[in-house]
């Protein structure tokens, strides 16, 4: 089948598109399993699920190189999985096990991994932005060409730390890619109720950094925008801002009764489910059939099964080591 | 008879701090100084005067008035292998960066299960006595001593002003250095080769057998002066300079109190919920049966610092108040 490639819709590469679909399916399956495990009390604390927002992580984070740094939020399971932290290590973290990516000290909101330069799930809204600026400053001062991707939600845009960090990154021309996941709600408060300018890309542009809004439900659009922005940041042209317009289908957290938005609104957004959109697009292009989709679903299901088994078999840290990691144990350098 | 004295240099506390920064910058190219007006202005207390000319604007880095962002940027840069010295003008302004200090600097090592340490030094001015009123004069360092994960230092002498910084920079974890504003013009002689000092122990600045006066930072000169006056009336006061406020060198305090049987704590902070309360509690826990009198505390009056000179003087710890407190514990001796 011949298609006319256009700037907005590049020709689909089947293998690549299927891998994007698989990534989103893995996140979806992982998150749905987390919800079940929460209800079964295997996972406790706060649990913020990424269901509906998968296209952002799946599309944007592969634009990064292994040497790049990532700063994330408390809704970061999807970011962690795409960045390359194993599903087992993430699940074990939520089980509070030593095998977890933060040894069970962090939990769902604080996934960390030095190997993939994943500088955490930060549970203070906006609190990660200054860190990202500092990481980028270090890259600049060390004359290294890695960049820092900083993920945060629309709620963070209301924080003073957003303003301070955007300004500092811009005035110093630092290599930061700011990725705002605008899901329209800061917990239960709608964006339009709490922020005077709801066009967040326009807000960012006021700091004199290139900024654009992207359809965050279209993984291919996310991917293209992220690649271009990451390349630009890496070229030394200063920070960039991407507003990913997305939506979470589930409640803010497992504690949230979701009283602040209409069922119809959620249903409308579900019609633009990023998985459904890509699935349909692939089928329309003759690249996906029921058998292939079923095989993908089964494959990610097995991966999540394995992650749960890994977490179930995890070990508890002895209480005697409770006060480890308050101060460093290694020699000063 | 002539004696060859070791060569000394005459300098002020301010110059000792500056020399410490200069020395660190020369020894380690990962070290840089960042803060409001540290460069072109020369430092709001002139500590960094001349360093911009020597090291350039990349390493003597003026920041916007964005305490949260530049402290957080220091944390991020430290995570990526730099050794930042962040200067905050006063401890009152550090409250604007409290989120970064408490929620990030102090927690990242633990939340990440030991993967990410933060080798950051934050310097700031503290204390009153300069008629700067209620937003520039407080001694809030005691608050920071509540936080696991950070080390809190208070150089009170020229040697410590010269020597604590390098040791702090070698520490793999965050260190806060509090410089009392009244000390900057203190002057004297220190050995020409003075350099790094250990930061783990309190120091007995004046030996004595009758009463232990425990203090730190800006009130050390007051305590030494009063100890001299007390000697004239036959009371030998031992003066302990804590040097490190967290961790506290409890052993040195208890050793002294066990010998003298009396303890007066002098702390420019407020009395309620204070560092002086912590010291008093530790003395009670560890040396109760050696005490000949209840522990006394000399603190600032519980009032936001007033501007008028006579009111401010009345609010701060005074020689008269300390003398009275010593007389109180000596009653019946």
Characterise this structure.
The complex is a heterodimer of chains A (333) and B (333). Chain A is an alpha/beta fold and 333 residues long. Helices cover 37% and strands 21% of the residues of chain B. In chain B, the strands form three sheets. Chain B has a seven-stranded mixed sheet, sandwiched between helices. The longest helix of chain B has 15 residues. The N and C termini of chain B lie far apart (45 Å). The mean pLDDT of chain B is 97.
Main traits of this protein?
heterodimer, A: 333 residues, alpha/beta, six-stranded parallel β-sheet, B: 333 residues, Rossmann fold, 37% helix
Number of E strands of chain A: 8
Total number of distinct structural domains of chain A: 1
Q: What is the CATH level 1 assignment of chain A?
A: Alpha Beta
* CATH 2nd-level architecture of the largest domain in chain B: 3-Layer(aba) Sandwich
Shape of chain A: globular
**Major sheet of chain B:** 7 strands, mixed
The most extensive interface, with participating residues per chain, is: A-B, 48 and 43 residues
Q: Looking at this structure, what is the CATH superfamily of chain A?
A: Thiamin diphosphate (ThDP)-binding fold, Pyr/PP domains
State the helicity of chain A in percent bands: 40-55%
Number of helices of chain B: 13
Helix/strand-derived class of chain B?
alpha/beta
Tell me the CATH topology of chain A: Rossmann fold
Element string of chain B (H = helix, E = strand):
EHEHEHEHHHEHEHEEEEHEEHEHEHH
Radius of gyration of chain B: 20 Å
pLDDT under 50 segments of chain B (min length 5)?
Answer: none
C-alpha termini separation of chain B: 45 Å
The SS-based structural class of chain A is: alpha/beta
Low-pLDDT regions of chain A? 1-7
Structural shape of chain B? globular
Determine the mean pLDDT of chain A.
95
């Amino acid at each position: 089948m011949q298609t006319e490639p256009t700037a907005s819709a590049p020709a689909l590469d089947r293998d690549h598109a299927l891998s994007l679909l698989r990534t989103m399916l893995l996140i979806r399956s992982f998150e749905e399993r987390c919800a079940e495990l929460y209800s079964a009390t295997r996972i406790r604390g706060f649990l913020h699920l990424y269901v509906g927002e998968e296209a952002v992580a799946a599309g944007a984070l592969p634009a990064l190189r292994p040497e790049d740094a990532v700063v994330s939020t408390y809704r970061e399971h999807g970011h962690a999985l795409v960045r390359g932290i194993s599903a087992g290590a993430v699940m074990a973290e939520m089980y509070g096990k030593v095998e977890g990516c933060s040894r069970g000290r962090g939990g769902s909101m604080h996934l960390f991994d030095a190997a993939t330069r994943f500088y955490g799930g930060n549970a203070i809204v906006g609190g990660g932005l200054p860190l990202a600026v500092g990481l980028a400053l270090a890259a600049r001062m060390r004359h290294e060409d890695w960049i820092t991707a900083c993920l945060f939600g629309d709620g963070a845009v209301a924080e003073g730390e957003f303003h301070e960090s955007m300004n500092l990154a811009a005035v110093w021309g630092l290599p930061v890619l700011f990725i705002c996941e605008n899901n329209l709600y800061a917990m239960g408060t709608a964006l339009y109720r709490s922020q005077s300018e709801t066009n967040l890309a326009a807000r960012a542009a006021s700091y004199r950094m290139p900024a654009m809004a992207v359809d965050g439900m279209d993984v291919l659009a996310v991917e293209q925008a992220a690649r271009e922005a990451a390349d630009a940041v890496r070229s030394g042209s200063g920070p960039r801002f991407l507003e990913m317009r997305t939506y979470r289908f589930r409640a803010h957290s497992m504690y949230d009764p979701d009283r602040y938005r209409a069922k119809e609104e959620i249903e409308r957004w579900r019609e633009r489910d990023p998985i459904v959109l890509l699935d349909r697009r692939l089928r329309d292009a003759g690249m996906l059939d029921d058998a292939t989709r079923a095989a993908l679903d089964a494959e990610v299901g097995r991966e999540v099964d394995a992650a749960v088994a890994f977490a179930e078999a995890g070990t508890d840290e002895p209480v005697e080591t409770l006060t480890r990691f308050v101060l460093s144990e290694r020699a000063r350098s | 008879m002539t004696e060859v004295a070791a060569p000394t240099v005459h300098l002020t506390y301010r110059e000792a701090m500056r020399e410490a920064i200069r020395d660190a910058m020369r020894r380690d190219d990962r070290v840089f100084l960042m803060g409001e007006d540290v460069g072109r202005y020369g430092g709001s207390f002139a500590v960094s005067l001349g360093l911009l000319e020597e090291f350039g604007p990349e390493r003597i880095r003026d920041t916007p008035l964005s305490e949260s962002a530049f402290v957080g940027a220091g944390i991020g840069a430290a995570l990526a292998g730099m050794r930042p010295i962040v200067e905050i003008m006063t401890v009152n302004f550090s409250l604007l960066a409290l989120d970064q200090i408490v929620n990030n600097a102090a927690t990242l090592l633990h939340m990440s299960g030991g993967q990410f340490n933060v080798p950051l030094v934050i310097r700031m001015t503290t204390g009153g006595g300069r008629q700067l009123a209620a937003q520039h004069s407080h001694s809030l360092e005691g608050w920071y001593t509540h936080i696991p994960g950070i080390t809190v230092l208070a150089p009170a002498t020229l040697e410590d002003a010269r020597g604590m910084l390098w040791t702090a920079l070698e520490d793999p974890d965050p260190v806060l250095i509090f410089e009392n504003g009244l000390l900057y013009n203190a002057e004297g002689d220190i050995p020409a080769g003075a350099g790094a000092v250990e930061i783990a122990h309190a120091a007995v600045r004046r030996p004595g057998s009758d009463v232990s006066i425990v203090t730190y930072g800006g009130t050390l000169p007051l305590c030494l002066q009063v100890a001299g006056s007390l000697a004239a009336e036959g009371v030998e006061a031992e003066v302990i300079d804590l040097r490190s406020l967290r961790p506290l060198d409890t052993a040195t305090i208890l050793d002294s109190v066990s010998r003298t049987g009396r303890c007066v704590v002098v702390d420019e902070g407020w009395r309620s919920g204070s560092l002086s309360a912590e010291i008093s509690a530790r003395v009670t826990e560890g040396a109760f049966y050696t005490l000949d009198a209840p522990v006394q505390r000399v603190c600032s009056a519980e009032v936001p610092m007033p501007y008028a000179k006579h009111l401010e003087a009345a609010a701060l710890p005074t020689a008269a108040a300390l003398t009275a407190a010593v007389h109180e514990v000596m009653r019946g001796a």
